[in-house]
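Re: weekly structure request thread

Next one in the queue (165 aa):
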Amino acid sequence: MRGLTNHFIPVKPFSTGEKNTELFPGQWKKKVWMSDVGILAMGGLLAAWAAKFGFWHMAALYLGPLAITNCWLVLYTWLQHTDVDVPHYEGENWSFLKGAFMSIDRPYGPLFDFLHHRIGSTHVVHHIDCTIPCAPALPCPPPLRSPTHPRAEPPSPPPVRFTLR
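Done, posted below.
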């Protein structure tokens, strides 16, 4: 058991304090505290910006684009891990490698593939070896770039069609 989960406070009661069950072992605690300082500093900068220029000015130039970017990344990630043809495994049936091959390579068209460094069309190989950057993954053999589930080729419909599927 790892204890309660909290990604901002790496000590008890949100951590067991035991070496083998720590949520944030070793140097990670220091990194979590440094991240907390960064979050507070950014919150302070945003509050100062809003105080000087008004909340709506800050929201239009920072919060709006942040929300759109986060929504886009969540959708992109969801599409790489979800499809009606991809089985979901649990317990004994699941393995890391099986899960890696159940992610999906999806082409998003030449413009989005270029702008996103082909993270959509080389996603499976990223799950197999996360040290391979996405753009250099393109020359990997097709069996590594395509999922092993029954639909062996990446889907070809436009992103809107496989989003609504």
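Residues 54-164 form one domain. Helices lie at 28-53, 55-81, 96-101, 109-115, 123-128, 142-145, 159-164.
Next request, please.
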